[in-house]
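User: Reviewer 2 asked us to show a designed sequence for the structure in our supplementary figure. I'm pasting the structure tokens here. Could you produce the per-position amino acids so we can include them in the response letter?
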């Protein structure tokens, strides 16, 4: 009797746990790419607005570009680095770590990464995506046209601040080199929300903490990842696009 009761509980509880789990869909994962510019590697992701595509990344990955200049980056596909050329744009009035590349010769592609404005709640859990240390999930089955899938890590929305109309988001998570430029995604959980994942920010950096190590030879200082991720609010994308349209 006890065995039957236990089985009954398992059959009820496990499906509910599976249904409660939040999963990112392929249409989101397939729009995040491993990018290289000169010797710098990072993450970029594709968005669409007003039937125009933009590749979004962290500005520092592009090594201090000039506004509007044409540059060539490389995107990893089929185990090769393939070139992508486009004009780069960013916020000319604020030193913000976000840049957009408007690609050349690139037919319009829908993106599963939504730019809808949502309200995030402190303590809520979301995800950030990218290619830390060049790591990825390779597309051996060709379900993603030979593009590797990004690694996915969880983060907690810890807080936010705004200066000069630029939002900085603080997340509790462990960021690593290579995630720079990746998307930060949270669900729209409000009463009238759609309960889907939407872009809330772009990974910029992580906060270092300086520690002291006591040795027989004296005190040594070293830096450690504090676990505080710094991201730029996704509204910066809208600001850059508006300035492209009305320079």
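Assistant: Here is a per-position design you can include in the supplement:
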């Amino acid at each position: 009797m006890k065995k039957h009761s236990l089985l009954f509980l398992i059959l009820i509880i496990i499906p509910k746990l599976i249904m409660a789990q939040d999963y990112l869909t392929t249409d989101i994962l397939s729009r995040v790419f491993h990018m290289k510019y000169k010797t710098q590697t990072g993450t970029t992701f594709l968005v669409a607005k007003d039937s125009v595509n933009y590749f979004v990344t962290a500005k520092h990955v592009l090594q201090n570009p000039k506004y509007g200049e044409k540059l060539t980056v490389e995107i990893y596909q089929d185990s090769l680095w393939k070139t992508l050329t486009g004009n780069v744009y960013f916020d000319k009035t604020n030193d913000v770590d976000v840049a957009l590349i408007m690609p050349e010769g690139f037919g319009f592609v829908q993106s599963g990464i939504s730019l809808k404005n949502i309200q995030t709640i402190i303590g809520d859990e979301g995800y950030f995506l990218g290619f830390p240390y060049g790591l990825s999930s390779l597309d051996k089955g060709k379900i993603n046209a030979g593009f590797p899938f990004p690694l996915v890590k969880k983060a907690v929305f810890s807080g936010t601040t705004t200066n000069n109309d630029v939002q900085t988001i603080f997340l509790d998570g462990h960021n690593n080199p290579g995630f720079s430029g990746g998307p930060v995604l949270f669900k729209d959980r409000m009463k009238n929300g759609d309960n889907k994942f939407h872009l809330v920010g772009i990974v910029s950096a992580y906060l270092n903490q300086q520690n002291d190590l006591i040795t027989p030879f004296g005190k040594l200082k070293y830096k450690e990842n504090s676990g505080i991720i710094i991201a730029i609010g996704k509204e910066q994308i809208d600001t850059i696009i508006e300035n492209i349209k009305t320079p």
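For the response letter, you might also mention the following. The CA atoms of residues 37 and 178 lie 12 Å apart. The chain is about 15% helix and 45% strand.
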